[in-house]
Amino acid sequence: MTKQVQQLDRVIIRFAGDSGDGMQLTGDRFTAETAQFGNDLSTLPNFPAEIRAPAGTLPGVSSFQLHFADHDILTPGDAPNVLVAMNPAALKANLADLPRRADIIANIDEFTKRNLVKVGYAGNPIEDDSLAEWRLHAVPLTSLTVRALEGFDISKKDAERAKNMFALGLLSWLYSRPTEGTIAFLEAKFARKPEIAKANIAAFQAGWNYGETTESFSTSYEIKPATLRPGTYRNISGNQALAYGLIAASVQARLPLFLGSYPITPASDILHELSRHKHFGIRTFQAEDEIAGVAAALGAAFGGSLGVTTTSGPGVALKAETVGLAVTTELPLIVVDVQRAGPSTGMPTKTEQTDLLMAMFGRNGESPVPVFAPATPSDCFTMAVEAARIAVKYRTPVMLLSDGYLANGSEPWRIPEIDELPDISVRFTTAPNGDDGTMYLPYLRDPATLARPWAVPGTPGLEHRIGGIEKADGSGNISYDPNNHDRMVRLRQAKIDGIDVPPLEVDDPDGDARVLVLGWGSTYGPIAAAVRRVRKDGGKVAQAHLRHLNPLPANTCEVLRSYDKVLLPEINLGQLAMLLRARFLVDVITYNQVRGLPFKAAELAAVIQDVIDSD
Amino acid sequence: MTDTTNGSLNGKGLALIPRAEGKQTLKDFKSDQEVRWCPGCGDYAILAAVQSFLPELGLKRENIVFVSGIGCSSRFPYYLNTYGFHSIHGRAPAIATGLAASRPDLSVWVITGDGDALSIGGNHLIHALRRNVNLNILLFNNRIYGLTKGQYSPTSEVGKITKSTPMGSLDKPFNPISLALGAEAGFVARTIDSDRKHLQSVLRQAAAHRGTSLVEIYQNCNIFNDGAFDTLKDPATRDEITIRLEHGQPIVFGTGDNEQAVRLSPYGGVEVVRRSEASDDQILVHDAHNPDPSPAFALSRLDEPAFQHVPIGVFRSIDRPSYDHLLNEQVRAATADKGAGSLADLLHGGDTWQIN
Ligand SMILES: Cc1ncc(C[n+]2csc(CCOP(=O)(O)OP(=O)(O)O)c2C)c(N)n1
Ligand code: SF4
Ligand SMILES: [Mg+2]
């Protein structure tokens, strides 16, 4: 049978199965093949907080969505064109997201009476006509895999386990993906178990061959490589990019990195990643709690390290007092908050932008800190370097707000040349700075930046004491003088207000839009995709995105005031909106969702269109 | 291979810290700040003892750091002309951990109070002790909250009448020595503000110890808990109460007819008996280096009930690898194994592709 090959410009695939089915791995491999092939892509893993929820149940469903295209794309996609459902739970949990005519590849071996009942199906959707709206491909993935592996010296369980590789092979055929990478990956992954490696490779190839021969699939697809900016690329997740950014910052600052951290979803992978790179002189310290994590980082900063602590919202709440100590002792410190749905434990694996006001104000006293937020997974690299640049230049703790969506999502990243990275090296103070030439004044500020000197222990003649009690301007001695306190509060604020952040750029192609969509942090992709849709339909809309939230770019007010309407979508109940209204008296129009999920571009496009059309 | 022993550093807590060239004096360690404790406070005596002890270490002054929490005692660093960090309530051990782990060339001292170390900072204290970073923790135990004006503390005796417990406190106190031994501490000692010689000899041993050392210092708060340790100071009672532990020596105390000895109890633990009732070979010989902490723990229980007998001195001093040493050894081993990190190699690691 000759099969047709059809050209597509983009596809969204969702792999869904039980937590134990290896869907994240399958998605990762498909992503790697797609990246190798040269498509632009964006991914969104979605997994339960439970490590192994009961098999076959709805809470146990784990999925991985991948959007890839022959042009540059901005989000993992709203709705999948293809759903791979490894069991009835995966089908049931994901069907609502599936548009009509989308393909469903279902593993019918798992659609047993027992499994169907477990998730509340009365009948078998594969057999009744309840899936008539979709293009159903019923494939016995498990039994085909087991049969393909009959000759191998492995247990039945191991053979069944390889069904995800069969599925991967089938999808790889369907979308004409290169296969060498996956074969090499499996060889390396199971290097110590060659029989398992061979079996998985055989399952993968059997899946490919099945696609080629079965009548269930009459067409395969091609998606041409995207034309991206020339350079060397790799695929990278937000957490990995953030970890690499911190390493780059340490190299560029010429300061050893000290990470104090306590495990918490979705931030732990940064701790894991940094722990693997000790040969960069990195010291990672898994503390007894979040307070000790940040406290140790601050202690290391006092000693001249680049002090970093990584956590999520509940951890930031615990760290507040120590961050305040860093504010008043004016030591560089990077506090990474990979935000997740709250309050309290909330939904640990789901995303949210709800820690902005905590980052801004969640400390006692007037306690200003810079707050930055990366816009995309790969931007986590850039913004980690930026956070370090500001921390060391201004001697201040910096809050870096990533979130679950950025942390686990991935995209191709053009690897920067080392000489494109900023030189953020610091000079420690090594000589007395007092008028008399012998005194050291730890709070004598640089007139340009208002930063205080940083003299580290081990420097002779500069022995000094710092601490949380209010300090006299200049000498740093304990002071309860009312006027001094008033001055110090204002100086600390002025220092943060004066931080050099780049101006807010506006994307307004024709320059005649009357509506501006503003966003911050991880909403960049969905907002930009929505803006594209609106423009494609002839709508006029400008877009601007904040990565520096404190201080705000100097031109922020001017930008906001130059549009009739400003629409501000946030994954919270309007936290940035509150700040902007208070600062600039600009009544931004809010659009808020807190569903633990990123915005969908189509939804946002409709909201933007409404704002354009209204009045 | 990572070297997982302390190697040649055993017993040399100061080996990696640069030594001063000239001779130092007490004056070198006094800061220009006015000391602000209440007149008569035990903290003065401890400060004087430390200031006159530091020159003896012969370390570069700039390589000494005092980190403290919050409390009267935690003001200590301001009065020493070394590097100092007066931090927040309870967190000094954690801050000092980051500093000492990243800077093996520093001699790091933690100053803390009974509330600071055992209440709000209890978690950091026990983890510092088990982790064994090269730190010296001096716990000023006045059995009261001084700075907040006299509430009972986690070392106050049951029934303590204070502003917050007008009908008497209800909860059983910690015994800091027992707690530290239970937390896997490698060096545990107790001393008292009024006995400068003893205090300094304990500090000397603590400094020499590589790893975390905990020194409990009984400190009189003459404003809110005056006389808490009087029975240990009053010549009429002190010799019958104080048990001076010396490594390798039989544990005997008291004088004349009141001479007493410590021996193993048939019920487990140790007991105090009249010297005349114990044969020489029954008397416990103090072994601070015993790998088994049980005898030291048993000794720490002798103050029950109500300070009847109070051992002072070094309860335990054993060598085990310090965390900072092991951590830096991992950094060294990784660098030896993979070469010093190259950022370009790191960023280009994994699957990459080229777009022209
Ligand atoms: C987070 C926090 N909670 C409470 C306090 C108030 N506070 C300051 S010192 C102290 C207790 C001090 O007692 P202790 O540690 O025994 O020190 P002392 O004053 O007796 O030397 C308390 C409760 C504080 N400074 N910070
Ligand atoms: S309150 Fe007590 S501990 Fe505090 S300074 Fe006064 S006497 Fe010393
Ligand atoms: Mg106290």
From TrEMBL, chain B:
Gene3D superfamilies per record: 3.40.50.970
A Pfam family recorded for this sequence: TPP_enzyme_C
InterPro entries membership: 2-oxoacid:Fd_oxidoreductase (IPR051457), THDP-binding (IPR029061), TPP_enzyme_TPP-bd (IPR011766)
Domain Thiamine pyrophosphate enzyme TPP-binding: from-to ranges: 70-217
Keyword list, A-Z: Oxidoreductase
Transmembrane segment boundaries: none
CDD domains to which the protein is assigned, alphabetical: TPP_OGFOR
UniProt-recorded name of the protein: 2-oxoacid:ferredoxin oxidoreductase subunit beta
